[in-house]
Amino acid sequence: MKIDLIFTIVLLAISIQLCLSQLGGRRDQAAAKATANKNARTSIEDFSLQFYKSLANLPEVQSQNIFVSPLSVWALLVLTAEGAQSNTLRQIENNIGTVQNFQREFREIQQDLLISKSDIKVIGEQLAFSDKSLPVKREYEQLIDTYYNVKLQKLDFSRKNAKQTYERINQIVEKVTGGKVLKPLNPLDIIDAKLVLLSLMYFKADWTSPFNSSLTQTQAFYDEKDVEITKVPMMYQKGVFPYMASKQINGHVLELPYGQDKSMSMILVLPRKGTPLSEVVENLSQMKMEEVYNQLTQSIIDYEDDEVEVLIPKFEFNGDYQLRVILEKMGISDVFHEQSADLSRLTDDNSIFLNSILQKTKIIVNEQGTEASAATTATFIDKITPPKFFANRPFFYMIVNKEKKLILFMGQVGNPSLTEVNKNKGQSRDQ
């Protein structure tokens, strides 16, 4: 019997479809080559959109609230791929590209995920723990330390010492995150496990232009059919923000920056009335994010004195995701099955496979800010009157660092009055 390998992603805060087309011959080869040659930042962007679409297309989460960090999933897939071989490796690289291409960039990205300012704080960390009985290859330990700044820590995962090990991991997590992430695991998560990988993400930032709480009023929130589903506190302000009404996306795009340096921002995408949110996300996935960023920047240049009326809900979501079924839908399946998992570059013990990949999330959006854990004029509407971005119906959002070309979080608001985000959705049937 094979031994479980558990990966956990923990967040506290708040596409381009890359599945190789089955068109045969040269087009398959060209697509595979393009995927293989990606750099890390392009890989993160493409994987994020593909992953989000796979999640959002699950029947049980459509029209619901979603909040995830594909970046954290990507980071753990990279660490997994470095220990994988044969078809297990190919399935992962078909989705993220050749992992050896990311080795030089990974530490740079880690540095980009460490921001500590008075108005923006970002923490991104990866940790690895193995049971002391697992013979991890020295080459793998050295590789993840050298290129990914991940030092493997050996602990005792036996049932007898599970509680002590659980407390030790929590102490380490609390230390590396400055107390921002607490108890990412349940005690049962580590009993008889052989390897635990953690990807921790924390984000907290103040809006560059905070909302005035005295203007927040309870208003109706509608579904995609324009039927009122709830009443929630809606925040309002009018100001100069990057904004566009895009024919390509068939929706409105607004950027709300964080901090005085505006290095981070939330990008909100609101479908035109009558347009399903899924269609807007699909349209967005056909564009490069660089194009979206450029068009938003150009909108400020073209309409620097024009103000946008902004109305968005206050919301707070908690999520608990089992991501195995989503990754299997994307073609990453061998690593989850005892007969097919090949992690022979990680260990000579051929009995391990990936049992589960978990993600816990939280996002808080209020008047103060957020806590989580070539443009053409035809693209923009004519701003004869001040445009309105009234997000009183389902919308999509991302938290990004445009300068560093990183998407940290993605999600959608289907009903802002709900606080639980799809608890335990995406769980494989055989678990």
TrEMBL record:
Please give the GO cellular component terms listed in this UniProt entry.
extracellular space
* Highest taxon of the lineage: Eukaryota
A Pfam family name for this chain?
Serpin
Q: Serpin domain spans which residues? A: 49-416
Swiss-Prot/TrEMBL keywords: Protease inhibitor, Serine protease inhibitor, Signal
**Gene Ontology MF annotations:** serine-type endopeptidase inhibitor activity
Q: Which CDD domains match?
A: serpin77Ba-like_insects
InterPro entries listed in its UniProt record: Serpin_CS (IPR023795), Serpin_dom (IPR023796), Serpin_fam (IPR000215), Serpin_sf (IPR036186), Serpin_sf_1 (IPR042178), Serpin_sf_2 (IPR042185)
- Signal peptide feature range: 1-21
Protein family membership: Belongs to the serpin family.
From the Swiss-Prot or TrEMBL record, give the protein name: Putative salivary serpin
